[in-house]
């Protein structure tokens, strides 16, 4: 089975890059299932309900969120109606939404068959997040993976964390108990994709889908000014050099990863009139 993980979709440019890039990838690669991190899809922070529905319609089977999961009220109020969106698992039990789900693979090309079941889950790291705090992800990891593996050998885990050491530690703890553990939140693609001894594919950070001539997908000048003055600045769109980034993971029938390939798909820049229309709508 071939799983495409799309790195964090950031702002309108990210949504545009996903729309353009996913069609190119599906023509070039044999993709059975698409998982996309969309924690910054709406305004660079959070995921709105309309964007969630649109990205899902474009081809993402599952959308993942992280520390920004509750930023958009229209999503928070409709979690139960949107089963294709996940928030971090290690939150308070009273939090809306689900931290994992089991999905059916509907791809006729899948070697595992159209009835294959895929488990997808999200965990939130503990370092660097000030507005949302999760329980210890390492403590809840064994029970979560055991529960998912009872359902299916195909288990994909997103670890949304800021600290490299925390990611590497969780990778080691999860190795052999899931098909892949993908690091997110950094929005900068790392070059350490590999398969661990136990058969789990990992990468410290899958990158971002959006403008690559930017600061984490945001306009450069306001970010520089923020560092110089110490005054917070709202995220502003960056449009230059859009790309879809992520990883393509091939998984054997026993749930072990066979390969992991970094993906970078440059797409044409959005036409000027479309940029103007986007700004006027926002």
Itemize the secondary structure elements and their pairings.
Layout: E1 2-6, E2 8-9, H1 11-28, E3 33-37, H2 49-58, E4 62-64, H3 73-76, E5 85-86, E6 100-104, E7 117-124, H4 137-149, E8 154-160, H5 164-174, E9 180-184, E10 194-195, E11 201-203, E12 208-211, H6 220-229, E13 242-251, E14 257-266, H7 272-281
Parallel strand pairs: 1-3, 2-12, 3-4, 4-5, 7-8, 8-9, 9-11
Antiparallel strand pairs: 1-13, 6-7, 10-11, 12-13, 13-14
Question: Keyphrases for this structure?
Answer:
alpha/beta, 7 helices, 25% strand
Tell me what the structure shows.
With about 280 residues, the protein is of the alpha/beta class. It is built from seven helices and 14 strands. It has helices spanning about 10-30, 50-60, 75, 135-150, 165-175, 220-230, 270-280; strands spanning about 1-5, 10, 35, 60-65, 85, 100-105, 115-125, 155-160, 180-185, 195, 200-205, 210, 240-250, 255-265. The strands form two sheets. Strands 1, 2, 3, 4, 5, 12, 13 and 14 form an eight-stranded mixed β-sheet that branches. A six-stranded mixed β-sheet has the order 6-7-8-9-11-10, with helices on one face. Helix 2 (about 50-60) links the parallel strand 3 and strand 4.
